[in-house]
Amino acid sequence: xxxxxxxxxxxxxxxxxxxxxxAGFHIVHRSGGSTPSASFTAPSTATDDWCIEHMExxxxxxxxxxxxxxxxxxxxxxxxxxxxxxxxxxxxRGGGAPRGNGPVLMxxxxxxxxxxxxxxxxxxxxxxxxxxxxxxxRPWVMAMKPDILGDGSDWETFSPDLDxxxxxxxxxxxxxVNHNNTISAGYEKDRVVGVLLALRDARIPMDADAIQxxxxxxxxxxxxxxRLAQYVRDINSGKRPRARPVxxxxxxxxxxxxxxxxxxxxxxxx
Length: 270
What we know:
- By secondary structure, the protein is α/β, with parallel strands linked by helices.
- The chain contains 10 helices and 7 strands.
- Strand 3, helix 3 and strand 4 (about 85-90) form a beta-alpha-beta unit.
- Helix 1 (about 5-25) runs antiparallel to helix 3 (about 75-85), helix 6 (about 165-175) runs antiparallel to helix 7 (about 185-200) and helix 6 (about 165-175) crosses helix 10.
């Protein structure tokens, strides 16, 4: 890379840093490695570090917005895309995916948007979320525990905690369903609906958004996190989705015993 090209690439990163500072607060999830602990850092250094750490020579910085027109809502974001060849704009509408390897700046996504990006994105080195409504992604943040860059005050109000029995049930589902299949049909539906109905019948509270956030943070693929949350909403409202019985009657007791003993054998629950 020539010195001029290197200077231009570094300037682009500097603009990205300015953009993130203007956004007020942001969330970083480093992909391709262990999930970092949440931390609160000064935006001037944190955003610089994030861009420099995750942009490598030859990378493309993808700037995501839901609609093409959303880009003009932030001058710094629009300028970043227009001025630099190593920065591209992608949109959620139409299933836009990152081009090549590199980090992604997601501007104003919700949890479904995050799921779609991860589903279709290949070569994503890291994701930085810029949000104007903390509540839209709060369950995901609480489950993923990403680094917080800038002002962390919006994250001091937490989403509802999931009951330990619910978490244990979700862990079991994560291990036993085939994530290449939809949970809208077949064994996967039977398993998921059966577990949720068992939790409901045991009067164990379930929060749909918190469960969706947990699923997104633990590798659930495609539209399954959304469908999982909708099942929870339906069941909480009194509906009982049809499913073939695949669980033992004492399923909840098995979960309680596992929690008490620390045992983790999904085959013992059926």
